[in-house]
Amino acid sequence: MELLKERILKDGIVIMPDVLRVDSFLNHQIDCTLYRQIAKEFKERYKDTKINKILTIEASGIGIALATAFELDDVPVVFAKKGTAKTTSTHLYTAKVHSFTKGIDYDAIVSKKYLSEDDNILIIDDFLANGQAVLGLIDIINQAKANVAGVGIVIEKGFQNGRKLIEEKGYRVESLAIVDDFKDGKVILR
């Protein structure tokens, strides 16, 4: 997606050897025009796939998921909350997730009343690095006996193993921009 790639090259900031800051347009301040184009691109890439729900994880995935839902005829959006499941609950789906960026573990939590075995769910997230957030969402969908229709990622770190882990489990991944490397503080896109 050329508009996204241009924006990453123009405004993305490499802040550590493997961390890209895109908060000026993607996940702190939101460029609504860019979000609209991202959503249209996900709709195009999944046009032949039955989708009746979107699942994401708080917080940065919510805006992208919502924009995509509008393009997909207003399908519902469910977002996993990050926290700690204090007890085993019969009304919650939970999955352990490790955050690459923050270096912490947390529980991704979704109420059972929002997912059903009839759902064909598109997972949407802003970044794919080591794949742990997406794998946690896949686990939750599997607990609900629902179907993973696919995974939509805005920016993938192609030099990390997230895509490989997800595809090895048989799931389709569509990334709108893939970072191959960070070299001398610059972003190298595929």
Automatic annotation (TrEMBL):
It catalyses: XMP + diphosphate = xanthine + 5-phospho-alpha-D-ribose 1-diphosphate. GO terms for molecular function: xanthine phosphoribosyltransferase activity. Its EC number is 2.4.2.22. GO terms for biological process: purine ribonucleoside salvage; xanthine metabolic process; XMP salvage. InterPro entries: PRTase-like (IPR029057), PRTase_dom (IPR000836), Pur/Pyrimidine_PRTase (IPR050118), Xanthine_PRibTrfase (IPR010079). SUPFAM superfamilies: PRTase-like. Signal peptide: none annotated. It is found in: Cytoplasm. Xanthine binds at residues 20, 27, 157. It comes from the Bacteria. GO terms for cellular component: cytoplasm. Gene3D superfamilies: 3.40.50.2020. Residues 36-164 form the Phosphoribosyltransferase domain. Converts the preformed base xanthine, a product of nucleic acid breakdown, to xanthosine 5'-monophosphate (XMP), so it can be reused for RNA or DNA synthesis. Belongs to the purine/pyrimidine phosphoribosyltransferase family. Xpt subfamily. Homodimer. This is Xanthine phosphoribosyltransferase. It comes from Thomasclavelia spiroformis. The gene is xpt.
